[in-house]
Amino acid sequence: MKNFLRRNPKFLRFWLAAWSSEFGDNIRNTALLFVILEQFADKAAAAISINLILEYAPIFLLGPIIGVFADRFDRKTSLSGALLFRAVVMLLFISAIATNSVLMIYIGSFLSAISTLVFRASQPAFTMSLVHSDDRLLAASYRQMSISFTNIIGPVVAIMLYGAIGSSFMIVIATVLFISAATTIIRIPNEQQNNELSPSINTNTLTFRSIWSDLKLGFQFALGHKIVKIVTLSNLAFGLVAGVYNVMQMFLITEYLGLPKESLSWFTPIIGVTMLIGSLLIPKIKCKPERLLTISVFLLACGLGGMTIFPSVIWVIAATVLFFTGIVAYNITTASLIQTHVEIDFQGRVSTFIQLAWMGPMLLMSLIVGQLYPAVSISYLFIGTGCIVFLLAITVAYRIAKLQVNPHPLSMEMEQNKLAQSL
């Protein structure tokens, strides 16, 4: 760990900024949850669900367009600007608390989601510029580590802050964390990029035709790139298992295991610890990222399907550990593959494209499961989805094996030539 961070001091700064940003997100989200529960108790359930929809809506409405702009403009400026914009949006939440306006919370959540999307679309290419290609798997694991750790500690810290200072001051703290993260990124020194990382698209033309052309080129690149197609297929599997688990986690504990809902307080830390340990150990596995991707999808299938084979707490915990180990391996591997095989000019558009590939199935599966349960038992839902994802894992394994049989898969230059000929 120390050697990697010493080799990559610029990534260390970005990593610290990411920690600050993620803690800010946790504190803000917890504060908003308590504001909704306290000030809008009579319509809290509806407000929470609308707020959740507004957080996902920008991915579908604006994701591809934001991907184009992420590829056009300076990544450091986009990242720091997104964080500063998120800090400004906090003023809306403070106003919402002062005026009891749920509409301001909705607007603020939608705008925050846009800034988060800009941050995520710009992040892969920026990481590529900070670390050597051989270190990208480790860089992805460190980002996963920060996400896992803040998922464990963040809610606990946020709840303690709420009890001590209340929701308004929590919003202020989140604002300070966002500004701190933006300042840290701004202070990362620029360096002359090599040819591989030099953006080549035209950033001066902002006509509808030029934006549409870049958008179309990005989709053509994603649909024609062998690695991206495999990652997109695995994203479909990820979206299916995420949709089932997100909806059914509480019912898995209360209905299937017959435990009180308070058991979630010790069940969730097990997940967080699993993800944290996984983010430390998975990069040390001597395995090609392509093969690790296949293994991760099989872990997702076996973990989800295995949760409801036996109604035993120990068995469910073991299957959950397997499942979330697969999630960590999947997140690290897909980030590494995209940053390694997709050139920097297409990072923003490809990242938003693959987000759509898992977000759509996740939301669709969430709706389907919500309608089927309890008419269909939780065991059938988990095992059935696990079987579908297992078949997708076989397909991913076949596609990767077929790719490896051809010792010379399409290089970046060949991908560009292929696209240029198709235009």
From TrEMBL:
Entry protein name: MFS transporter
Keywords: Cell membrane, Membrane, Transmembrane, Transmembrane helix, Transport
Coiled coil: none
TM helices/strands, residue ranges: 48-70, 142-163, 169-188, 230-252, 264-283, 292-310, 316-338, 350-373, 379-401
Cellular localization per UniProt: Cell membrane
Membrane topology of the entry: Multi-pass membrane protein
Xref: Pfam families: MFS_1
InterPro entries: MFS, MFS_trans_sf
Stored CDD domains: MFS_MefA_like
Native source organism of the sequence: Paenibacillus arenosi
Keyword Cell membrane attached: yes
Signal peptide: none
